Amino acid sequence: MKKYVLKRVLISFLTLLAITLLLFILLQAMPGSPFNDEKLTPDQRAALDAKYGLDQPIVVQFLRYVVNMFKGDFGVSYKISKNTPISQLIESRLPISIYIGGFAVTLGAVCGLVLGIVAALKHNTGWDTLCTVISVLGVSIPSYVFALALSYSLGFKLKWFPMLYSAGEPFASSIMPSIALSLFTLASIARFTRTEMLEVLGSDYMQLAESKGMYGSKLIVRHALRNALIPIVTVLAPLIVDLMTGSLVVEKIFSIPGVGSLLVTAIQSNDYNVVIALSFIYSAMYIGIMLVVDILYGIIDPRIRLAKEGGN
Amino acid sequence: MMDEKEKERILSIRDLDISFSTTSGTVHAIRGIDFDVYRGETVAIVGESGSGKSVTVKAAMGILASNGTINSGTADFVYHRDNGEKVELDLLKTSKRDMRRHINGKRIAMVFQDPMTSLDPTMQIGKQIMEGMIWHYGTSKEEAYKRSLELLEMVGITDAEKRMKNYPHQLSGGMRQRVVIAIALACNPDLLICDEPTTALDVTIQAKILELIKDLQQRLGISVIYITHDLGVVAKVADYVNVMYAGKIVERGTIDEIFYDPRHPYTWGLLSAMPDLDTEDSHLYAIPGSPPNMLHEPAGDAFSPRNIYALNIDDRKEPPMFKITETHSAATWLLDPRAPKVDMPAELRARIDRLLKEEAK
Amino acid sequence: MESTENSAAVLQPDEFLPNDFELRGNTDSTHVDTNFASQNFWKEVRARFFANKGAVFSLIVIIILCLLAIFGPGMNKYSYSDQNLLEKNFAPRVPGLESLGIFDGNENMTTTTGSKLVNGYKDTGKEDVYYWFGSDVLGRDIWTRVWEGTRISMGIALCAAIIDMVIGMSYGLISGYYGGHVDSVMQRIAEIVNGIPRLVIVTLLMLVLPRGFVTIVFALMITEWIGMSRIARAEMLKLKEQEFVLASRTLGAKDFFIIFREILPNIIGQIITQLMFSIPTAIFTEAFLSFVGLGIPVPMCSLGSLISDAFNSFTTHPYQIIPPIVVLALLMLCFNMLADGLREAFDPKLKEM
């Protein structure tokens, strides 16, 4: 088990390093120098270069870059908000995005699980069909389409929820965006849970448990759920990534001041530093979540937790 | 074997008829089965894959697949409560809930074919054994733990303490099957059903498991239904044999009657197909063709297409059960007084004579 | 040999035929195995697929949408980039249907003060002008733009998906076939590439490279091949040990031949299924990119850019955003269902048995 964890941590670290390298290369390829001020004289420029270590060999620059990134020092923005440290821009926005994203994941996961379990238990009935329909729709309709639909129907026509985010009512104005974001997660998890549950319900050990005399909720909870839920942990990581992707557009639609809309603005205004900084953050988050999920999976599944000791 | 007078019939299945609805149509899997199990006896059900052996016992246990329908039949089961009171009920008419509560695990227990998949991979072995006792009898955890240790030792697992905390994937196939047997015996059932318990195991382990089951049976006095396709196994464990083909029992008798005086051409085929070191033939015998697809029920005798001893009537009408002795019957038109005298294949006859001679020594 | 018949099944004497009790003798039927008659693989697949109503329906819808994409833009006199600022924001108007009261150019405009009925055609006195899906904020015909956009979106998606398939499949097949160190290294690389969120890669690429059709295809390609390679590798691992591979090798076939001529045809089913699944992903990603402004440059349009353009006025002129959204959703839905149906057809899980 320890070996497993170590291996995953190492790979995660290497991956993040590889990404940082990629970002660094891109940064070098960007037109213009970091000091976008034509008013500087060559001497002043040289002095600044020396100060920021830009006259050092490229490898050293890279190492400094890595250290800075990991420290959270992302440099400054040039287009969005001139010379503001990027970390400052991100600071206020990150919690909002995480809040809405977290809400969406939880909502989607819980509802998806319930729907999937019910669909499997009531195989070939109305619930099953409902689950399938929702799964297919949820997976096919992009979150922003859904967001637009929600915004129009519940926000504009029915006026149940505010159409734009306002810090004054954080909860009420997060509902629609969270629901929109959660749809894909809900659909994917429902479908996956249903498949897993069905497989487990038809398995030999369920039959043995029944022949032992087990039935009802005890049977389902103790034998079926435990086995069905373990693989679901593995699909969480990719789903969270999709959520991050979806958040970009959803934040724009609902005017949410989160990192997603910051990224969109940065892209549209060609503010490279911000884009790169946010790319790093997203990558780090994704890799971190994957790592957590992998380790979690190793803990929950006894087959991985306790490697086979051998036979007779 | 027990005295005739002392024999109590604990399970009596009559006219069992089961169909399955599949996407390709209705499969008439069981077409009228009768058999009995007496206390302390081992009854074997023998047949090829697809003959319906497992379906029969699963129906009796109430764990038939959801697309199966019991069209008709009764399965009368007799057991005694702790106070000596005798209870008789038709398993097929009992609700699923009652079956699970009172019969499954408690009175009738089952050992399944594939030990690799029969155990819950995420639950410790000890817990899986204890579960039944706690569920049925409300046994305390400590009691159940002690008993589980005893059971593990009884089925031949050394270092039982350590094994209690293991998960199934940490055990070998043979050990897992022993655990399954331990689970089955946990609540002291009257009847143990073994559905091809050794098919998925190595031959050497097979022998050990058979020994174990036989030993347990003699010690605990339980009745056993043994399902298998391997006549060699039958020879070792069974008192009474039912030969099944295409959802019907084609021959039944005591083990001596079946092995030394088989009457149905299918039984001849099965016996001939058992490789024997002394056989002089240079080729191995196999029954030609394969079992019929029960989607399309054959008219007449289901075995007829593969039967080189078939009579013309076999293609038209199904043979009834012809009684040979009190305990021995076979469903073949060859036993009709009008049928020509047909003897079993020569090699088989030779082998049986050889065996009889050895017995006499 | 004593025998008595069981009482239950006594046959009347006249039910017996004179030759009943004679040996039938060997017939051909003893050796015929009727159980597992071999069926043509593709026949079975086709049969299973067409039994799946959802999948067939999706296929039909996709075909209709493709036909519309090919012929739609030419069906009326507008081109996708013609602007006519005098005719902007007209509601949909279809000759024939307008007499039924729908698609007659009327729209209910809801403002903060209330709603009022507006008809762009009547208001500007253009009685013989028709915009089937209405016109957008720059006076461009939405009908033409929607189908043009569908063309581009589908084109990008297909190109990306096919290139992905080729690359991913080859990568996975080779990695799986050679196994050992080659496999380890290749999989490590794939894992690292996979660790970078698709969003990040695509965004960064779009920053650096010039906007356009090729760039988007390239960006999509880089991220999607991993899924295909996984499937290809998994199938390869399953088939690699089988005897037909061994037979081929003993006959002297080179590795390349074995991989692409022996094993590949056996996994084509899975590959096609995965291809069908990657198309909606590509469509979605492209639409997404366009929505954030990284997509097709003007004046070309894709479904995503149409949605993006219409977003700003979706509360005032909702009809502008509906056609591209509906087409997008339909495409994604139908491709997903089609892919699902294909997967079931190629590898049915026998639920009863």
What can you tell me about this protein's structure?
The complex is a heterotrimer of chains A (312), B (361) and C (353). With 312 residues, chain A is mainly alpha-helical. Helix content of chain A is 77%, strand content 0%. Chain A has helices at residues 2-29, 42-51, 58-71, 86-121, 126-140, 143-157, 170-201, 204-212, 216-253, 259-268, 272-300, 302-305. In chain A, helix 6 (143-157) packs across helix 7 and helix 7 packs across helix 9 (216-253). Residues 308-312 of chain A have low confidence and may be disordered. Chain B is built from twelve helices and twelve strands. Chain B has helices at 53-61, 96-103, 115-118, 125-137, 141-154, 160-164, 173-185, 203-220, 231-237, 255-260, 265-272, 346-360, and strands spanning 9-22, 25-38, 42-46, 68-80, 86-90, 108-111, 191-195, 223-228, 240-245, 248-254, 322-323, 329-330. In chain B, the strands form two sheets. Chain B has an eight-stranded mixed beta sheet, sandwiched between helices. A four-stranded antiparallel beta sheet of chain B has the order 2-1-4-5, with helices on one face. Chain B is α/β, with parallel strands linked by helices. Chain C is built from eleven helices and three strands; from the N terminus they run E-H-H-E-E-H-H-H-H-H-H-H-H-H. In chain C, strands 2-3 form a two-stranded antiparallel ribbon. In chain C, helix 8 packs across helix 9 (255-291). Residues 1-9 of chain C have low confidence and may be disordered. The chains are: A mainly alpha (312), B alpha/beta (361), C mainly alpha (353). Chain A binds chain C through residues 11-12, 14-16, 18-19, 22-23, 26, 29, 136-137, 139-142, 144-145, 148, 152, 156, 241, 244-245, 248-249, 252-253, 263-264, 267-268, 270, 272, 275-276, 279, 282-283, 286-287, 290, and chain C through 110, 188, 191-192, 195-200, 203-204, 206-208, 280, 284, 287-288, 291-294, 307, 311, 314-315, 318, 321, 325, 328-329, 332-333, 335-337, 340. Strand 11 of chain B pairs antiparallel with strand 1 of chain C, so a sheet runs across the interface.
